[in-house]
Specification:
Blueprint (H helix, E strand, L loop, with lengths): L6 H12 L2 H5 L2 E9 L2 E4 L1 H14 L2 E11 L2 E10 L6 E10 L2 E8 L1
């Protein structure tokens, strides 16, 4: 199922599919924060490294299938399938947007 995503969030998922740390980092503000698997990554350099590391460690595909708003967050639920422990899984991507960039992202079950 295809859902309509705000452009900066669509750009994030496109960059993620490319497995490019540089492309993912470019979607974020300079001081953005990501919370994923109990770790916090602050700033584009840390975000670039986070994506580079996760992309080299696992092969996966992600398919967003639901979008909603919770307070100041845009929540996208996506189906992930890959060679990581617990696959397949549906994850909640909670985005905080600042203009045309992502200022925050929390990824949870």
């Amino acid at each position: 199922m295809t859902i309509g995503l705000p452009q900066m969030i669509a750009d994030y998922f496109t960059a993620d599919r490319q497995k490019s740390g540089d492309a993912v980092a470019a979607c974020f503000t300079a001081d953005a924060t990501i919370l994923d698997e109990g770790h916090t990554y602050i700033g584009r350099d840390a975000i670039r490294q986070w994506k580079t590391d996760s992309s080299s460690k696992y092969s996966y595909s992600v398919e967003p299938f639901s979008i909603s708003t919770e307070g100041d967050r845009t929540v996208v639920v996506s189906h992930l399938v890959g060679d990581f422990p617990g696959s397949p899984v549906d994850l909640r991507y909670q985005f905080v947007v600042d203009g045309n960039k992502i200022a925050g992202l929390e990824i949870t079950l």
